[in-house]
Design a protein that fits this description.
This protein is an alpha+beta fold. It is built from 13 helices and 18 strands. The strands form six sheets. A five-stranded mixed β-sheet has the order 14-15-16-17-18, covered by helices on one side. It has a four-stranded mixed β-sheet with strand order 1-12-13-11, with helices on both faces. A three-stranded antiparallel β-sheet has the order 3-6-5. Helix 13 links the parallel strand 17 and strand 18. Helix 6 packs across helix 7. It starts with a strand and ends with a strand.
Length: about 400
């Protein structure tokens, strides 16, 4: 199958159309949330909430009419979605549980403080059977054990290990506190008992690579954060997988002007390619993008295609930050035009816009300012803020 040739602008528009971030909204309401998660495979979860948690921020920029309660309900009422480990901690379709069994197997035979955790697992399950969902704060086991970031309570280590193993699932959350229940109480038996796919590890890796390409839109066959936590995937395996995907016409090669490395997209996205090749006029939207957004999983690629160098500075010491603690990329049309630092004062129901940094050569036209104002207003409403205050230091 012949390669596709795109200009830089066409490549940017392809990614944005794929994500539903340009032109009319592609995703709407509860069904839109499910449709996007199905397309993306997973949305990365992070508990920090300055102006919305990462998964919520991903969805607010794409799904018309999205509310935080909508995601909560799909996770913990309908259970169409599920907290699970994928690229990192993530939200997936519950139906995808069966594909990620290898991740769970890893924790059954290893992990920090393995012996200490194993000694209390059955006792914790019995506690849950008697009193229902529990958090690490209400089951005892307060002695400290070695854990991934630092020493932690055995209760937390045990609950998280059992969650990673698939023995427990997140039943609900109160803020950032997770309440765990037995998996069989949270996931449909048909899903839990489904046949395990991909007995061959290379087939599993191939499924993951296709899924990650679909999550980003365009990717290359080179080291990338987009491949994180695909078990045992190294360069040799990745090369073999791309060879097979091309031979089976499951992906298309895409050459972009002034880019020496070939990119790849899903063959099922042919219609989107045709649309961008026609260079038709697309409605410009102004959106704030999540710091761990699927589209940003390969920031080197974003730097090349969009000429936008983004770093999430949350873990950067304050004096070394170029911008701020929790800064969101600002998208307008088919370009990143800057970044915004917004903080919610929830007590006073106020969205505080601390700063806006525009990229060089961005003309602050009346049209752009109106689009940004509308974007900030939508963002405030998404965060249930009634007022907006601009500090702009």
């Amino acid at each position: 199958m012949r390669d596709i040739y795109l200009t830089n602008k066409q490549a940017r528009r392809f990614i944005l159309l794929k994500h539903g971030l340009i032109d009319e909204y592609k995703f709407t309401g509860r069904n839109g949330v499910i449709d996007f998660v199905r397309q993306a495979g997973c949305i990365q979860y992070d508990p920090i909430d300055v102006c919305g948690k990462n998964a919520e921020l991903v969805l607010q920029s794409r799904v018309k009419g999205f509310t935080k309660q909508m995601l909560y309900s799909l996770l913990y009422d309908d259970r169409a979605l599920l907290d699970h480990f994928d690229k990192n901690l993530a939200i997936i379709q519950s139906a995808d549980w069966k594909y990620l069994w290898r991740h769970r197997e890893v924790y059954k035979n290893g992990g920090r403080s393995h012996d200490e955790v194993n000694k209390v697992c059955e006792e914790i399950k019995n506690i849950i059977r008697k009193q229902g969902p529990v958090s690490s704060a209400n089951i005892g086991f307060d002695n400290k054990v070695n854990w991934y970031w630092s020493n932690t309570k055995l209760s937390r280590a045990a609950l998280e290990t059992m969650y990673f193993r698939g023995e427990l699932a997140v039943h609900h959350k109160k803020g950032t506190i997770k309440y765990y229940d037995l998996t069989e109480n949270c996931i449909d038996a048909k899903i839990l008992n489904a046949h395990r796919p991909h007995a061959n590890e290379l087939d599993y890796q191939k499924w993951c690579v296709l899924r990650r390409i679909g999550a980003v839109g365009l990717l290359w066959n080179k080291a990338s954060d987009a491949w994180l936590n695909i078990i045992n995937l190294k360069a040799a395996e990745r090369n073999e997988i791309f060879k097979r995907l091309l031979a089976g016409e499951e992906v298309l090669g895409v050459n972009v002007e002034n880019l020496k490395d070939r990119l790849y997209c899903l063959s099922s996205d042919c219609d989107l390619l045709e649309e961008v090749l026609q260079d038709s006029k697309l409605k410009e939207r102004c959106e704030l993008i999540a710091p761990l957004d699927n589209m940003l999983w390969d920031r080197r690629l974003i730097k090349i295609l969009f000429d936008f160098d983004y770093k999430w500075e949350i873990y950067t010491p304050k004096l070394q930050r170029k911008f701020g603690y929790y800064v969101l990329p600002l998208l307008y049309g088919d370009s990143f035009i800057g970044r915004v630092e917004a903080v919610c004062d929830r007590k006073n129901k106020t969205m505080i816009v601390k700063n806006i940094w525009y990229e060089e050569n961005v003309k602050q036209t009346k049209k752009l300012k109106k689009a940004l104002s509308d974007c900030i207003q939508r963002f405030a409403e998404f965060n249930e803020c009634e007022y907006i205050r601009e500090v702009l230091i």
